[in-house]
Design a protein that fits this description.
Length: about 80
């Protein structure tokens, strides 16, 4: 499914000008139909999957309990 620049910007949550700059820089692939750029939505599927995996890894890291410290000596 192809989206316009404004639809892609809304989907990604960034300004349309930034999406257009990314297209012109080659960071986002798009086709030009003579009037406007069209962006394939499927190219972002892997990006969002990797983003969710990274978020889950960070959450798992912060939820992992700390190991007991072996250097602590209880000499009360």
């Amino acid at each position: 499914m192809y989206k316009t620049i404004s639809e892609t910007a809304e989907y990604l949550g960034m300004p349309a000008e930034q999406v257009e700059k990314y297209i012109l820089d080659g960071r986002i692939r798009a086709v030009h139909d003579g009037e406007q750029f069209l962006v394939s939505q499927s190219q972002f599927c892997q990006y969002f999957e990797q983003l969710e995996t990274a978020k889950q890894m960070i959450e798992d890291y912060w939820n992992e309990p700390l190991p007991p410290d072996l250097d602590i000596k209880d000499e009360d």
